Amino acid sequence: MSKLLLRNHEPDASGLVHDVTPESAGWKHVGFKLYQLKPGQTVTGGDKDREVCLVLVAGKASVTAGNQRFESIGDRMSPFEDKKPYSVYAPQGVDWSVTAETDLELAVCSAPGANGGLPVKLIGPDDVASSVRGSSTNTRYINDILPDSKPADGLLVVEVKTPAGNWSSYPPHKHDIDNIDGGESLLEETYYHRMNPPQGFAFQRVYTDDRSIDEAMAVENGDLVMVPQGYHPVGAAHGYDLYYLNVMAGPTRIWRFNTAVEHRWLLNPAPAQ
Questions:
Q1: Is a pLDDT exceeding 90 seen at residue 221?
Q2: What distance in Å separates the CA atoms of residue 89 and residue 203, rounded to the nearest whole number?
Q3: Which pLDDT score is estimated for 271?
Q4: Strand-pair category, 86-90 with 121-123
Q5: Domains (range + CATH), the chain
Q6: Cβ contacts of residue 57 below 8 Å, gap of 6+?
Q7: HSE-up of 171 (CA within 13 Å, CB side)?
Q8: How do 16-20 and 31-37 pair as beta strands?
Q9: pLDDT, tens digit (0-9, with 9 covering 90-100), for 94-119
Q10: Buried b (16+ CB within 10 A) or exposed e, 209-245
Q11: What is the pLDDT averaged over residues 210-220?
Q12: Residue 237: left (phi > 0), alpha (psi -120 to 50), or beta?
């Protein structure tokens, strides 16, 4: 099995399924935890050096961060519902807790808090900008939870829904060079995948120009893929819609990417004859 693929499995007693740290991933910035909680279960956290974005992928919860409490937030029971998520941003040095009120799928996204001092913020559906990218079998639907236009120290968080049979993160692009003036930023990235119906699968390839990394992975419901560098396209199998939650962070909080040279023609395809 690829070292970049973490398989879904039963949660431990605390509800933890996935736990990616800079140390475990061999990189410097992105942290990601995924919890599956039962009603009444509570998760707590807080780090003097790291900011977090708590994303309610599915379910309802009450969230406390610092001296603020947000009661009974979350109104979708599946990420495939036509609803935007609820999230809470907490800067470095702020303790937080999440108590599930229904079955809860909770993503804890983290990155180094370079500056601190930002306020705790509830990110409700009205704060999340939606857009459509691509066309035809490259169409996908975006919810920008924490884009680079919104305040944070390092985190970028976005969720993407890709219809069955479509491609996503495509044409293949990368963001692994710290060269803002040249149009590319260095961002580590995680993909947390969900399928609908859940027995489905998708394919994700992670590869570099020199093929020092070249991994093709069959991704199933609840799996997680780490992208330390390179291109990372995804294809959803026919009959199965794909959702993924992306977390990105790097030395500069801006999303700039380069499309693979040999595939740039897809950005401006010739008209059909």
A1: yes
A2: 31
A3: 53
A4: antiparallel
A5: 5-267 (2.60.120.10)
A6: 34, 79, 85, 105, 106, 107, 192, 194, 245
A7: 13
A8: antiparallel
A9: 999 999 999 999 999 999 998 778 99
A10: eeeebebebebbbbbbbbbbbbbbbbbbbeebbbbbb
A11: 97
A12: beta
Give the pair of three-digit tokens for residue 106: 């909770």
Q: How much is the pLDDT for 29?
A: 98
SS3 content of the chain, % helix, strand, coil (to 5): 5, 50, 45
Give the Cα separation of 35 and 61 in Å (integer).
13
pLDDT band, very low/low/confident/very high, at 2 (cuts 50, 70, 90): confident
* Residue listed under structure tokens 């969720």: 159
* Partners of residue 174 on adjacent β-strands: 258
Give the residue among 272, 241, 258, 251 at the shortest CA–CA distance from 78: 241
Average pLDDT over residues 131-139: 95
Q: What length does the chain have?
A: 273
Percent of the chain, pLDDT > 70? Answer: 98
Whether the predicted pLDDT of 1 surpasses 80: no
Distance CA 229, CA 234 (A): 15
The CA-to-CA distance between both ends of the chain, in Å, stands at 43
pTM across the whole model: 0.96
Over the stretch 28-49, which tens digit does the pLDDT of each residue have? 999 999 999 999 999 999 999 9
Q: Which H or E element spans position 194?
A: strand 188-196
Q: What is the DSSP letter of 268?
A: S
